[in-house]
Amino acid sequence: EHHDPNRQKPQTSKNSDSPTPPTLHRKGGAPLDDSLPKGGRIPDEKQKLYEQCLNAPTPARHLSPKERAREAEREKLGLISKERQREMEILKKGGRKAMGVPDEPMIMGTPGLDLITLGLVDADKIPKYELTVEDGRRLAKEYSRVLMRKHRARQAAETNLLRMKKEAIEALPEKLKEAAMIPDLTPFPANRLMASLTPPIEGYIEKVKEAAKK
């Protein structure tokens, strides 16, 4: 067939109905609901709940000495913040009990299977400490120094081991040196246990199992 340049294309009337847009479906086949939020927007109720959780007030605040002094000056002028007013109300109600902090130490672990309930540890022999904020900071600094000394000692030991390894490889003959330079990429055995800083206590697992049976 030859194309006729004089042939006119059929014109459609402007009043004809336009084709309906296709309906979008989810992967499972259910159509998308236009009432759902689009573009990853969170509904206002959920957003409000998130903000309340993120901005929830704490039972006790940590303030620097400057902030404490500034707050004391504001109290003298009769200006009390909401956070300070909340702290004062908690102290009036009973201090630690009002904040939900028990006087007795909390038992950690699975209920009924902890060391105190099983009779492996005497609760009366556990030392009790009453530490202030200054004592806690002093102990934290001292502990960080201990960890730093251990870290440096470990670095020095690893450096010494690497140096001895290189010296041992250099002392080998050429054929053995070439074989020693090839890295061993075989996996560790499946029964390899995790590293531990202390040796295992003999009969400890048996005692725990017997106490759990009772």
From TrEMBL:
Q: Where is this region: Disordered?
A: 1-76
Task: Specify the domain of life of the species encoding this protein.
Answer: Eukaryota
Q: Where is the composition biased (Polar residues)?
A: 8-18
Q: Where is the composition biased (Basic and acidic residues)?
A: 64-76
Mind naming one GO cellular-component term on file for this protein? mitochondrial large ribosomal subunit
This protein is called: Uncharacterized protein
This protein's species is Gossypium raimondii
